[in-house]
Amino acid sequence: KLTDIKHAAIIFCAGNSSRMGKPKPLLQVKGISLIETCIANYRSACISNIKVIANESLFKDSEFSFTTGKFNVDVIVNSFPEKGRTYSIKLAAENSLSQEGCFFQNIDNPAPSGNAIVEMSKLLRNANDYIVPFVNGINGHPVLIGESILKHLASKRGLDWNLRDELRGFNRVYFKSDNENLIINLNTPLDWEKYKSSIDRV
Description:
The protein is 35% helix and 24% strand.
């Protein structure tokens, strides 16, 4: 049953978004922020354990606090964003050890639909598996990480490693889809305008 899925979701929001003019999680499409859409989509797939990793500036933002409070999600403050993405990944793994799997969701990537989240969850059958969307020959996001991999990442010492290299020692399972949102990256103002225009036309 859907409600038997014991997976969590970590949304990574600790990076700076100076090029966008405002924090990326608070950018809006049709009046709804990226962070609200992201949380709502995971909740629609019965993912109740959702945590957001945020930097201190975002954590203090009233709009961000209102949104995370409305959905009753936990916020993990990354006080050292200068340590890079690996530090956030280690924080995520350490805060997901009680789960059978955890979605690693970047705020830089549009959130998958609730249906896609459910279908990815169904594919995670082994603690050594990780699930990757595969669209038009391209690996996408988010990645769903199995329990054994979470424990491995949490146990890593130092920060001289990256997620891609660590995953090579585990079993990759593809979630095949034709939804190009799963391969979009919102890294620049141009990326954002193109994405926003595509949604506004729907």
